[in-house]
Amino acid sequence: MTPTHERALPWAADGAAYLRGMLTRMGDEAFAKPSSLPNWTRAHVLTHVARNADALINLLTWARTGVPTPPYSSTEQRNADIEAGAKRSPAEIRADLVASSDRLAAAVRGMPEEAWSARVDFRGRRILASDVLWLRAREVWIHAIDLDAGASFSDLPRPMLRELLTDAAVTMGARPEFPRLLLAPTDEPRTWTVGEMPAGSDEGPLVVKGPAAELVAWLLGRSKGRDLRTAEGKRPPALPSWL
Questions:
Q1: Do 182 and 193 form a contact (C-beta atoms < 8 A)?
Q2: CA 16 from chain center: how many Å?
Q3: How far apart, in whole angstroms, are the C-alpha atoms of residue 54 and residue 60?
Q4: CB-hemisphere CA count at 13 Å for 22?
Q5: Cβ atoms of 151 and 144 closer than 8 Å
Q6: I need a surface site. Which of 114, 122, 231, 232 has the fewest CB within 10 A?
Q7: What are phi and psi of 126, to 5 degrees?
Q8: Each residue's pLDDT tens digit in the chain (243 positions)?
Q9: 229 in the Ramachandran plot: left (φ > 0), alpha (ψ -120 to 50) or beta?
C-alpha cells in the first residue's frame, strides 16, 4: 500500500530541502553537464522536477474541486516544456525549482482533510489524492540522485528507503519479463519478494544480497549491482530496462 500523506509529507519535504541544498552547491557550469539519465542534462532533470510539482498541483486541484484537471495537457507538451526549460539560465532554473516547490507546499496546506480521499487520474490509472505526496517524495529523492552530483539512495530517510524498496519490488515484479527475485538486504531484518513464481514451477527465486540502498538502485536501473551478490556469491544478472 502507498504510504499515507501524513507519512509521506516529511519525506517529500526533506527531499525538497535536500535538492535545494544541492542547487546551492552546484556551480552554474554544472547545469549543462550530463545527468545519469539518457540524453538529459542536469538542467533537464531539474526542469522536469519543477514541472512535476505543477503537475501534482493540478491533481490536488482536481481532488479539492472535483473538476478534472490532468497533470499535463499532453505528453508532447510535457516533453516540449522540459526541452525549452532546460535551455534557460541556471539562475532561472534555480528560481523555478524553488517557486514550484513552494507552490506545491501551499497547495498541500490548502487541502481539506476530506479531499485526500478523492480519486484522480494519473498515468492511466486512478489514484487517491493522498498518493500525491508519496509520488513527490519519490520524484525529488530519485531525481536528486539522477543529477549525478554526489547524492545516493543511502541519503534517503531509512523508513522511506524501506517503502521505496517495497514499491520498487511490487512495480517491477508486475512486469512479465522481470526475473523472480528474493531480495535479502544485509542491513535489514526482513526480505522482499519481486514477482510470483509461475504455477507449477519448483524453481525458487534468485536470491540477491547487499545493502538495501544498493538493491533499490539496482531495481530502479540506477546501478549495475556491483556491490550485490547472489546466494552463490556471484554478481547479479543485468535487469530489463527500467524505461
A1: yes
A2: 13
A3: 10
A4: 27
A5: yes
A6: 232
A7: -90, 130
A8: 789 999 999 999 999 999 999 999 999 999 999 999 999 999 999 999 999 999 999 999 999 999 999 999 999 999 999 999 999 999 999 999 999 999 999 999 999 999 999 999 998 899 999 999 999 999 999 999 999 999 999 999 999 999 999 999 999 988 888 899 999 999 999 999 998 766 556 678 999 999 999 999 999 999 999 999 999 999 999 888 765
A9: beta
Give the chain as a 3 state SS string. CCCCHHHHHHHHHHHHHHHHHHHHHCCHHHHHCECCCCCCEHHHHHHHHHHHHHHHHHHHHHHHHCCCCCCCCCHHHHHHHHHHHCCCCHHHHHHHHHHHHHHHHHHHHCCCHHHHHCEEEECCEEEEHHHHHHHHHHHHHHHHHHCCCCCCHHHCCHHHHHHHHHHHHHHHHCCCCCCCEEEEECCCCCCEEECCCCCCCCCCCEEEEECHHHHHHHHCCCCCCCCCEECCCCCCCCCCCCC
Q: What amino acid occupies position 172?
A: M
d(CA 143, CA 141): 6
Quote the CA–CA distance of 184 and 192 in Å, as a whole number: 7
